[in-house]
Specification:
Elements: E1 2-7, H1 18-33, H2 43-52, H3 55-58, E2 67-71, E3 77-80, H4 86-97, E4 104-108, E5 132-137, H5 142-149, E6 166-170, E7 176-179, E8 182-189, E9 195-202, E10 205-210, H6 220-230, E11 235-239, H7 244-248, H8 259-269, E12 273-277, H9 285-302, E13 310-313, E14 319-321
Parallel strand pairs: 3-4, 4-5, 5-6, 10-11, 11-12, 12-13
Antiparallel strand pairs: 1-2, 1-14, 2-3, 7-8, 8-9, 9-10
């Protein structure tokens, strides 16, 4: 099982602006300026130097909104959400398969907010005859929401032109389904308009997609249900949009969680790896690096006698082998 992140931001797409890029280049040059002579003479030296820099200096977490690809045996492709990251995913599929190899894509929608649907009209395989999109979700309004965003005046290509290639399937939370070789289960989460997490299992491996959910500290039943849903997952993509202080104060009831809560729940569930996800568009790369380091320190302090939890921060393009 392999997981690839195509979009990891929440709320809306963001990108580096010219001044941010300039400041980053200046920071790199400052580090390079103190190196001994000859340390950057060859291409290998320069590559080694860049790779040694902090992630926020040598790379970026990216700015596309949520879209995560799950690849299993027999070439099955499952997709979690269709944020703006779906455009890059679609382009990669077109480059690989072209128009001559029709594919079936099983898509699982967490909820109907725009940042999780906005990539569908730009998902290239949608427009290739023979391709099939099966869109799964727990909202009764799922089909209506998709049709609405691909209608005038919001988008020039009406959904009716591609509807023959799209099938909608409504799922019930708490029920187990066999889909494209995966065991799939959905769970209701606390979020405006409701959100649903998904648990995918295949050949003893488990990936949990749990974005857009608020975990209040005093809701014991919700915590217990979440821990059971996360139980022994190999990877959890977790909504870590806010700091803990923001989540319980100025942004309470906004429907999102924090990196600290993610560590607590993943440790309690015996999960193996936690990916911080749905990054706040207000947080730049350096801020996300600091949140990751804080999360790792908190994990080390909270672990006690439990097995260690690997904490990573998802970025656009990240691939994780389970």
């Amino acid at each position: 099982m392999q997981v690839q992140f195509w979009g990891t931001r929440g709320s809306l797409p963001v990108s580096l602006n010219a001044e941010q890029l300039r400041q980053r280049l200046l920071s790199v040059l400052e580090v390079a300026a103190v190196l001994p002579p000859g340390q950057l003479d060859t291409a290998i030296d320069r590559a080694r130097f860049v790779d040694s820099l902090p992630f926020a200096m040598r790379g970026t977490y990216g700015g596309q909104t949520p879209c995560v690809e799950l690849r299993g045996k027999d070439g099955a492709t499952l997709i979690c959400d269709l944020g703006s990251g779906a455009r890059g995913l679609g382009n990669a599929k077109l480059a690989r398969f072209g128009p001559g190899q029709p594919q079936t894509y099983h898509i699982f929608i967490s909820h109907l907010h725009w940042d999780h649907l906005m990539g569908l009209p730009f998902f290239g395989p949608l427009y290739i005859p023979g391709n099939r999109l099966v869109i799964h979700g727990c909202h009764a309004e799922l089909e209506a929401a998709v049709r609405l965003q691909m209608s005038a005046p919001g988008f020039p290509v009406d959904f009716s032109l591609v509807q023959d290639q799209v099938e909608f399937r409504q799922l019930e939370p708490g029920c187990a389904y066999e889909i494209a070789g995966f065991r799939v289960e959905a769970m209701l989460q606390t979020h405006g308009g409701d959100s649903y997490g998904y648990r995918f299992e295949q050949d003893g491996k488990c990936f949990v997609y749990a974005t857009d959910s608020e975990h209040k500290l005093d809701q014991e039943e919700q915590w217990a249900a979440c821990i059971a849903f996360f139980r022994e997952a190999d990877l959890i993509a977790f909504d870590a949009m806010y700091s803990l202080s923001d989540m319980v104060s100025v942004k309470a009831d906004w429907g999102h969680s924090s990196h600290m809560i993610g560590v607590e729940l993943a440790l309690a569930a015996g999960a193996r790896r936690l990916a911080l996800f749905h990054h706040d568009p207000l947080n730049d790369d350096a801020s996300l690096d600091r949140l990751l380091e804080d999360s790792r320190r908190f994990e080390a302090m909270s672990r006690s006698r439990r097995p260690p939890l690997e904490v990573i921060s998802a970025h656009d393009g990240l691939t994780v082998q389970l």
